[in-house]
Amino acid sequence: MKQRTDTSGLWRQICLNDDLKAFEALFYGLNNRLIKFCILYVHQKEAAEEIVSDVFVKCWEGRKGLTEIVNPETYLFVCVKNQSLNYVKKYSNIHLVQIESTDKVEFVNTYDPEKEMERKELHFLLDQAIAKLPQQACIVFKLIKEDGMKYKEVAEILNISPRTVQTQLFRAIKKLSVILSDHQLASKSVVNPSATTPLMGLL
Questions:
Q1: Looking at the domain assignment, is residue 85 inside a domain?
Q2: What would the pLDDT profile of 115-138 be if each residue is shown by its tens digit?
Q3: What is the dihedral of CA 33, 37, 42, 45, to 10 degrees?
Q4: Of 91, 116, 140, at which residue does a domain stop?
């Protein structure tokens, strides 16, 4: 898992000591992650960069009133989400859709990791499939599987329950399993039907 920035320590230095170096460290530690998160909403890198920069500027300007923030990383993700939704509301007709509940399921490992070309093709197909997921499911999947966040953190950022986060994650996994199955059939890979593993463990 990626090393996480000590946001709480940096946040205290920023709010209490007006520490510009701490602010720069916070910015460089979270900027790329926040931009990637923002792009999931606005679908434009330039707009995402502007939104994230605006959030950081507002945090610096209002730092004296933010001393009570317990989890600054979650706070920044929520700020970016809200700014992104405002942007979407202003410039498009995109709406978030809630996903229905589903049960946890397991899937068969359907690719041979020893075949490098097949592995690369599979990941390309999965990236395409992830991009086509419903927006909130895509966001949940990326925050948990790519950004290493916990269910509770994602729930706080998206203002939904941890159970809903789990539900959406496994709904995304279920959809992606179809890609794996289709890929297996197309490549005629030999699969041991008794070797089952959660799809999320493959990605």
A1: yes
A2: 566 667 767 777 777 878 888 888
A3: 20
A4: 91
